[in-house]
Design brief:
Length: about 290
């Protein structure tokens, strides 16, 4: 079966929709800076999220919070068909305010909802985004879907236990997020805390659910996505995000995102062109 990898950016909803069909790719441990709501259409996958293990199948709903560490791979020898929507925190915050009247980000306490009836709603919403429909049905569906998810699977505010992490780990995270474009050694991180290499690795991984190097990789990929969304070319992005060369960056990007940097960049270039074309049409109508 031919692979299909499509990403649409919806201008009205201000969110991405991913469609993967016929893929066998294993995704290594990583996290996202945004919320992910998705489901499998075909295939069976092993999923590890926040150190819990799942076997997920068609009809299972996936709910990832920003920075939930996870990885997955195919286990039935068949290809994967997968759909999801990605929601940036600021967009999620505005939607929650519309629904609940409170400016607070939700926290999904359940990452896998087995055989969820909401998959049917999500599938229809996803298809509307894929087909680039412009009426308000998609906004209506999104709000109704999110309202039900908020009621059934979230905590409105993070508990102290969830938010708690040591000052040492916060220091390391801040350093990695600030110096991601540089060559960083484990000794550099040890110098920030005065701890041994093994202690640092064990402590960081226990608290964050992801190793320091995986954390750095994810930060670099997130920064690269933002640059590509603005139209930067992969060769320039590679140099600005700490990768040794464009080839290394391209291989790395596809491993984590499922698309090449140029494929990802083209999504936003074409979206900008459509938005400009609409603006030109409206300007012409006003003249007439």
């Amino acid at each position: 079966m031919k692979e299909v990898r499509i990403v649409k950016y919806d201008i009205e909803l201000k969110m991405e929709a991913y469609l993967f069909q016929g893929i066998m790719q294993k995704f290594p441990k990583h996290f996202h800076e945004y919320f992910v709501i998705g489901f499998i259409e075909k295939g069976k996958r092993f999923l590890s999220c926040k150190n819990r293990e799942y076997i997920i199948e068609p009809g299972d709903l996936l709910l990832f919070n920003p920075r939930d560490p996870h990885w997955c791979e195919q286990i039935d020898g068949k290809v994967l068909d997968y759909r999801c929507i990605n929601i940036q925190p600021e967009i999620m915050g505005k939607a929650v305010y519309e629904i609940a009247g409170k400016a607070a980000l939700p926290y999904f306490t359940t990452q896998v909802v087995f055989h969820s009836e909401l998959v049917t709603v999500l599938h229809e919403l996803h298809q509307i985004i894929m087909e680039e429909e412009k009426d308000f049905k998609k906004e209506e569906m999104f709000f109704f879907l999110l309202e039900q998810l908020l009621q059934e699977y979230t905590k409105r505010e993070l508990s102290e236990e969830i938010m708690e992490q040591s000052v040492e780990i916060k220091t390391i995270c801040e350093y990695l997020e600030t110096h991601y474009m540089e060559s960083i050694t484990l000794q550099d991180l040890c110098g920030l805390t005065g701890r041994s290499k093994y202690y640092l690795l064990r402590s960081f991984t226990k608290q964050k659910g992801i190793s320091p190097y995986n954390y750095l990789e994810t930060v670099r990929i997130d920064k690269a996505k933002k640059l590509l969304e603005k139209g930067s070319y992969p060769v320039d992005v590679a140099l600005q995000t700490g990768f040794s060369d464009q080839s290394h960056f391209s291989n790395f990007f596809k491993k984590y995102i499922g698309l090449t940097p140029m494929q990802y960049r083209s999504i936003f270039i074409s979206t900008d062109k459509r938005a400009l074309h609409r603006k030109e049409l409206w300007t012409e109508k006003e003249r007439l």
